[in-house]
Amino acid sequence: MTDIVQEYGSAAPTEDSSATPQVVNRDSPDFAAFTVVHTRHYVRWIFGALVLFVVLQFLWSLATNDKYGWPVFATYFFAPAILKGIQLTLGLTVVAGTIGFLLGTLLALARLSKSPILNSVSWSFIWFFRSVPLLVQLLVWYNLGYLYPRLGLGVPFTDNYFWSFDTVTLVSQFAAAVLGLSLNQAAYSAEIIRGGILSVDQGQLEAAAALGLPRHVRVLRIILPQAARAILPNAFNEIIGLIKGTSIVSVIALGELFYVTQVIYNRNQQVIPLLLVSVVWYIIFTTVLSIAQFYVERHFARGALRVVPPTPIQAARAWVKTQWARLDEKPAAPEPSKAATTRIGGNGS
Amino acid sequence: MSIAATHASDTVTTPTTRGLVDIRGVSKSYAGHDVLHDVNLTVQPGEVVAILGPSGSGKSTLLRTINHLESVDRGWVTVDGELIGYEQRGDRLFELKEREILKRRTNVGVVFQNFNLFPHLTAAENIAVAPVALGRLGKADARELALGLLAKVGLADKPDAYPRQLSGGQQQRVAIARALALQPKVLLFDEPTSALDPELVGEVLDVIRDLAKLGTTLIIVTHEIGFAREVADRIVFIDAGHILEVGPPERVFGSPKHPRTREFLGRVL
Lengths: 349, 269
Hints:
The complex is a heterodimer of chains A (349) and B (269).
Chain A: H1 2-19, H2 42-64, H3 70-77, H4 80-112, H5 116-131, H6 134-142, H7 144-147, E1 150-154, E2 161-166, H8 167-170, H9 173-198, H10 202-210, H11 215-245, H12 257-268, H13 271-300, H14 312-329, H15 336-348
Antiparallel strand pairs in A: 1-2
Helix pairs in contact in A: 3-13, 4-5, 4-9, 4-11, 4-12, 5-9, 6-9, 9-11, 11-13, 12-13
Chain B: H1 6-9, E1 21-30, E2 33-43, E3 48-52, H2 59-66, E4 74-79, E5 82-83, E6 86-89, E7 92-95, H3 98-105, E8 108-111, H4 123-133, H5 139-152, H6 168-180, E9 186-190, H7 198-214, E10 217-221, H8 225-231, E11 234-239, E12 242-247, H9 249-254, H10 259-268
Parallel strand pairs in B: 3-10, 3-11, 8-9, 9-10
Antiparallel strand pairs in B: 1-2, 1-4, 4-5, 6-7, 11-12
Helix pairs in contact in B: 4-5, 4-6, 5-6, 6-7
Organism (chain A): Cryobacterium algoricola
Pfam families (chain A): BPD_transp_1
Transmembrane segments (chain A): 42-62, 82-109, 121-142, 239-259, 271-296
């Protein structure tokens, strides 16, 4: 900075007049010819190096510590039992997630309705299922047969059934898991969806009403797409939570990924390698969902942003393109002043 | 940028009863505070009425009662003899189901101060959404209608722009086109230029001026005194929920009767 000031104060005007005679304003130097020197962040660099060292050390230990048992990991990663467990984990997530969010939407709409009955029933549902631990819920659903041995249709408030089922056969392990997970999920997603709906401007409702749009069109076409922007980050949080949360159903001996892992390591005592198997699978699921989240959010951002940000692929392509263009440019710029100009311009892009 | 008569001509069926608004003895209060007090006003079909008054005088509330966005405590509002919220059978008024209210509402278009365009829909989609949802037009026809209306408000080149990509004046013109898509008998404007930069006000007023020539009943709440004087057939002055003055612009602006009107006009003119 001081260099520029000195030059500006003394040397610049005379130098300018000799080198570039076409300059009109002789008092202000032509900054395009200067090279920009960025601030140097020494402390940032030191800490960056430290963190990098710790990360590398950890990765090195992963590779060299044979207690991680990577060969065992490799044998079991695609083992049929594990794949079957994954099938169940994903199945539970899809079913519980779908039921949870559909029921949650209904609960949210009920909570926002003007009917005091719908409103308070919805509130109580949410209150109850958020209050009772999921673990307890699963055990209760699994043991429902103890409370109500038979379920069916009959004369209200009596024990006379026209048509009934044995509870134990009706509520299997899988059904108990689905019930517990989806009702719990519904309670949480109801609040997320309600929050999203509340975030939509009141004027949107008025405009939709003034246009005479029927209620289902208002909800599905006007309100929910706008609420989606507020709902989605939390909804993906919930789904990612759910996919790992399914591991809790191992308490009712349902053979999902985590339960299968436990069964195997109880047999062969390879605890860490098998836990790593399930951890890596969970990481894969979460990664896929995170990528999906980016694109889904991007879809619902249309209209909310003036310019939708590029996808990582588009950004990478644009970066390669500019780098490529720079490579092309360099030999074709022999004139020093022109080269300096491109350098300054190039920093921005 | 003229709104040609073609749009209106194919819809005019009974020109004599098109857009008669009758407001009778309307009162409304929020939490004990009177917003509207025994308001009576008849707006003739095709008439252009400008409602003036200080902030909080109840002029927006009055406008919103006309299409039942706001319910009234006493009195009633009819459009072409139809109550928007109720149906008369004998000596009883039956509150209408929402579906029926919505249908009647489509006779009354509203243009809001803050545009209230749907931000996730493009300009053309904003206009086409209601005719499609109400089953009046197929998707392709609605799109064509939208393009035609956009051309009429001078935005033929913006059908696929999202509201946030448009200026305030352009957004308000899309909002006017959206209100026109249902071919309403009455158009309500709730301070249509109050949220706009001064230099964008003109383009919106131009569109409203063109509408005024078409014979749709227009009721405009505005602060643009000059515009009201130019375009309105009658001026209504409201203060504290009372209509203090009704009359042609020359009379109301030239020789206001009520001292409150004189005071208000003295401050804004």
